[in-house]
């Protein structure tokens, strides 16, 4: 690809959900067209994209045609199948790169990689059998969480292990899926850093946000987060370390547990992240434009924060609150245009804005 | 139409230029789909719209199909032909209403209407012949400007009249087109107010901006404008008066000359306005979302300004400045995705943001 991409170029986006939708809108601000690749019909991102390809990730012809029709490819989710990436990369550069994707697709690889960078993660053990789970429970103990190595998100693919649970009771629930047992971390709260790295190695991080989850799904992100100046610096520096180590291009989300002994990396996401939605109303350049700038080979925007923000997700029946929220002068609404309201489905979010 | 429109509804937009494009993006934030109606091929708005109809304004079938496929119709330009509106209104409500369009389509009607509201306008005279131009020049004098009553914008369809010009010299240039002669106003500067009115009569105005033109085209808008508190109040009140008098729904731009004797209305535009682009980076809810909220029957957003902004247009070869502007941390870029750079063509704009 030519670096930087000229305005008017087309950015291919794998995935047509709300993240793809907001990436598409951000791309339009810089004069780019977008082309969405999504297996599901009528994707939310398709409503604001120049083109949509509806095809599965094992449709070789569709993948090849897509990769030839765009100037760079990025993605809204990390679980793009490896064989699809092989085909896509033959036609067009994919950003962020393969290594970032591979590392974050597998919880075991991710934790091992973060440790090689000298970062702290929760105690963990690879579990592929009842015997290994038994050994892991002896080493790590309970409470702990058994997670599938691949494809889990929003609390799916996880089993909480409590005192008294045994490998014999738990393992049959996992259908022989390779797992990681994660030890309990005694953290006071979770924060996340949305960092970005440009094609020429410039790094910029947004202010860390403080996350509260409900039923395994992000509920709110608050900026500023409750952090000491030293913790804030640590959070930003370790994010920069990951970005540089991965030779990363784009936006990366890093979830961190805050403990008295320091920050522990929970997980990384090689994409724009729900906990970065506050940037839409707290910064001049939000995480979506920052990602588009990076993958297009443009300079990063300034991530300085001009307001205090509480982002709250609208999940399922929360949509009933929209009429009231729409009339609140301190609130900016962001709705995803999803046709059907389902329990647990992310339908939108809103940012409550107060002067800094 | 049902008022308010539910999220997921479709907003029809007449015109596929940059205003339609930014309206479409704003609509997506509230979960609306958009359908663009535009005679020209490959409209900039089509890149971020759910649907595009490419058809002329005298294509009865296309107009009828369009109006039946959307939940409300709005427009990015005031010169929608009357016959097209008849067809559209038969299928779907058009907002802002017909009266606002009719008033602003004709400079003579507009000035006469504003006078009936007790507002001041420049001295003017209807000119449909050489004799009338001669009489008007006697009454109004020079310098003055002869403007076509209809279809003029960005300085097109205008002839400047200087001392010594005669009706005999000037009139043949106008091809028998009905005109208005506008007398010279000795103003210190021009400001504009972007006002909005909701379906239930709520009115909100953004802070007035100060406009500088070059070669008849808006060059910069600066907020805050250079106005006394009394002038600012006058500007906002007269905008509210126009909005209420027209029973208006949507965003309206009002251009005002600032003179020692008070504010004189230059012209009104029944749509989002170039001089309101600063709101994208100066307010939580910008003029585009404000317009979408109004035409969808939603409550208006808060128009409070949180930053000082200078908006500058990127016209034609100004696009060469984009790489440098993209790297400036105080600048937000907004590019329109137009394929071809032409002299005098609006290609984008940028907002220079400083803390308030």
Poorly predicted segments of chain A:
none
Beta strands of chain A, count: 17
Largest sheet data of chain A: 9 strands, antiparallel
Order of helices and strands of chain A: EHEEHEHHHEHEEHEEEEEHEEHHEHEE
Oligomer: homodimer
Amount of beta strand of chain A: 25-35%
What is the first-to-last residue Cα distance of chain A?
Answer: 40 Å
- Overall pLDDT score of chain A: 95
Instruction: Specify Rg of chain A, calculated over alpha carbons.
Output: 20 Å
Count of DSSP H/I helices of chain A: 11
The secondary structure category of chain A is alpha+beta
Shape of chain A: globular
Helix content of chain A: 25-40%
Largest interface: A-B, 47 and 47 residues
Features:
homodimer, 356 residues, alpha+beta, nine-stranded antiparallel beta sheet, four-stranded parallel beta sheet, 11 helices
Write up this protein.
Two copies of one chain form a homodimer. With 356 residues, chain A is an alpha+beta fold. Chain A is built from eleven helices and 17 strands. Chain A has helices spanning 18-29, 60-69, 82-91, 98-105, 107-116, 130-140, 167-170, 229-245, 279-282, 287-295, 322-326; strands spanning 10-14, 33-38, 51-54, 72-75, 124-127, 144-148, 158-161, 179-183, 189-197, 203-205, 209-214, 217-223, 250-259, 262-269, 307-315, 331-335, 346-355. In chain A, the strands form three sheets. In chain A, strands 9, 10, 11, 12, 13, 14, 15, 16 and 17 form a nine-stranded antiparallel beta sheet that branches. In chain A, strands 3-2-1-4 form a four-stranded parallel beta sheet, with helices on both faces. In chain A, helix 1 links the parallel strand 1 (10-14) and strand 2. The termini of chain A are far apart. Chains A and B meet through helix 1, helix 11, strand 16 and strand 17 of A and helix 1, helix 11, strand 16 and strand 17 of B.
């Amino acid at each position: 690809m030519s670096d930087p991409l000229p305005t008017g170029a087309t950015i291919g986006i794998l995935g047509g959900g709300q993240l793809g939708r907001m990436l598409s809108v951000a791309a339009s601000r810089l004069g780019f067209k977008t082309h969405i690749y999504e297996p599901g019909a009528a994707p939310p991102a398709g409503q604001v994209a120049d083109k949509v390809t509806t095809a599965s990730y094992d449709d070789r012809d569709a993948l090849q045609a897509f990769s030839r029709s765009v100037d760079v490819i990025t993605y809204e989710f990390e679980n793009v199948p490896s064989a699809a990436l092989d085909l896509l990369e033959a036609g067009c550069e994919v950003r962020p790169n393969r290594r970032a994707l591979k590392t974050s697709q597998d919880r075991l690889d991710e934790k091992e990689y973060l440790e090689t960078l000298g970062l702290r993660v929760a105690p963990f053990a690879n579990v592929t059998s009842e015997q290994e789970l038994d050994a892991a429970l002896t080493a790590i103990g309970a409470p702990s969480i058994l997670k599938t190595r691949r494809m889990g998100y929003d609390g799916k693919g996880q089993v909480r292990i409590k005192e008294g649970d045994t490998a014999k009771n738990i393992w049959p629930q996992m259908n022989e899926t390779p797992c990681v047992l994660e030890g309990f971390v005694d953290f006071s709260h979770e924060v996340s850093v949305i960092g970005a790295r440009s094609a020429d190695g410039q790094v910029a991080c947004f202010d860390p946000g403080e996350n509260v989850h409900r039923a395994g799904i992000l509920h709110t992100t608050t900026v500023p987060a409750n952090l000491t100046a030293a913790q804030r610096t640590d959070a930003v520096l370790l994010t920069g370390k990951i970005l540089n180590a991965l030779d990363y291009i784009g936006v990366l989300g890093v979830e961190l547990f805050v403990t008295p002994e320091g920050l522990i990396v929970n997980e990384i996401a090689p994409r724009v992240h729900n906990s970065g939605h506050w940037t839409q109303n707290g910064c001049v350049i939000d995480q979506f434009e920052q990602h588009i700038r990076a993958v297009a080979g443009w300079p990063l925007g300034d991530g300085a924060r001009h307001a205090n923000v509480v982002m709250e997700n609208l999940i399922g029946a929360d949509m009933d609150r929209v009429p009231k929220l729409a009339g609140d002068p301190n609130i900016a609404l962001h709705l995803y245009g999803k046709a059907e309201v389902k329990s647990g489905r992310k339908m939108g979010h809103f940012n409550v804005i107060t002067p800094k």
